[in-house]
């Protein structure tokens, strides 16, 4: 049993909970303009449009339920107290709703709000408006606490520390198309960790992994954990 397992999850893990992925057929970036909705420039240009996009996703995520893959990963962490680091690119709270604690949300979370003026963070109301005053400084410049393209992901030092001490790195339900997340497998390999990809089909970085399991996460992840 590897001493330290580092797991990275992506939108594919929440697909069977009814939350769309980004790049699959009918995915979010197929039907929405990423540059207008997930960049600081898009927010500066039209904050109301961006809030409408994230308000709808916050509403969907609130009504979604964790699936067997989320529960299996919680089970794995509980079985191996302190030896599993769970990093997610997902902004939903389905890992936590399945019982997982201390999940590293490297791209932020829908249930968080951030003041662009004073950097105060607070729980996001279900429906955010561009005119909402910051509860700390009063400035009407609050945004979803989400990492957009061109912005530095959260907790990168902690993530790099975990990757450099990994014995096994597992990527689940991610296309490997966005950096720095897509480069984590290389970092783990560089320190001699075993690497496993669990996905519906081969990702953009499939060749970087030692082994792979393909199929729906709700089946493959419980099978891998057991
Ligand atoms: C488009 C891409 C080329 N661009 C980037 O990577 C950019 C620029 C860049 C940086 N370095 C580079 C190097 C080369 C090229 C470009 C770059 N990166 C950045 O801007 C990042 C910030 C990127 C974050 C953007 N925010 C997101 N999300 C939050 C928003 C929101 O949610 O609205 S990214 C978003 O897309 C990413 C990919 O999505 P996935 O989760 O993988 O989903 P996807 O739909 O793509 O794939 C789903 C997969 O699941 C599978 N699947 C589907 N159903 C199932 C199923 N049922 N079961 C199992 N698997 C399934 C499918 O087969 C598929 O493979 C995720 O990270 C996700 O969070 N910032 C940064 O680099 O800062 C500097 C830096 C770097 C290092 C250290 C310090 C500073």
UniProtKB/TrEMBL annotation:
Cofactor binding, per record: Binds 1 zinc ion per subunit.
PROSITE patterns membership: SIRTUIN
Binding sites annotated in the UniProt record for NAD(+): 10-29, 89-92, 173-175, 199-201, 217
Protein's UniProt keywords contain Lipoprotein: no
Entry's Gene Ontology cellular component terms: cytoplasm
Record flagged with keyword Zinc: yes
Cofactor requirements of the protein: Zn(2+)
Domain annotation Deacetylase sirtuin-type: ranges: 1-226
Binding locations of Zn(2+): 115, 118, 134, 137
Catalysed reactions, semicolon-separated: N(6)-acetyl-L-lysyl-[protein] + NAD(+) + H2O = 2''-O-acetyl-ADP-D-ribose + nicotinamide + L-lysyl-[protein]; N(6)-succinyl-L-lysyl-[protein] + NAD(+) + H2O = 2''-O-succinyl-ADP-D-ribose + nicotinamide + L-lysyl-[protein]
Subcellular locations according to the entry: Cytoplasm
HAMAP family named among the record's database cross-references: Sirtuin_ClassIII
Protein name: NAD-dependent protein deacylase
């Amino acid at each position: 049993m590897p001493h330290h397992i580092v797991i990275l999850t992506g939108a594919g893990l929440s697909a069977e909970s009814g939350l769309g992925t980004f790049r699959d057929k009918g995915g979010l970036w197929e039907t929405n303009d990423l540059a207008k909705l997930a960049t600081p420039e898009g927010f500066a240009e039209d904050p109301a449009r961006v809030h409408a996009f994230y308000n709808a996703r916050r509403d969907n995520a609130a009504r979604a339920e964790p699936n067997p893959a989320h529960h299996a990963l919680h089970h794995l962490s509980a079985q191996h107290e302190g030896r599993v680091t769970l990093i997610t690119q997902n902004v939903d709270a389905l890992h936590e709703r399945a019982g997982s604690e201390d999940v590293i949300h490297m791209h932020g979370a829908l249930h968080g709000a951030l003041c662009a003026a004073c950097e105060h963070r607070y729980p996001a109301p279900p429906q955010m408006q561009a005119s909402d005053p910051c509860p700390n400084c009063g400035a009407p410049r609050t945004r979803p606490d989400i990492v957009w393209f061109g912005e530095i992901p959260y907790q990168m030092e902690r993530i790099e520390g975990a990757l450099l001490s990994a014995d096994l790195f597992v990527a689940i339900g991610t296309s490997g198309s966005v950096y720095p997340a897509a480069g984590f497998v290389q970092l783990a390999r560089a320190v001699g960790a075993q690497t496993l990809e669990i996905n519906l089909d081969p990702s953009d970085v499939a060749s970087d992994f030692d082994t792979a399991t393909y199929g729906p996460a709700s089946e493959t992840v419980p099978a891998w954990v057991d």
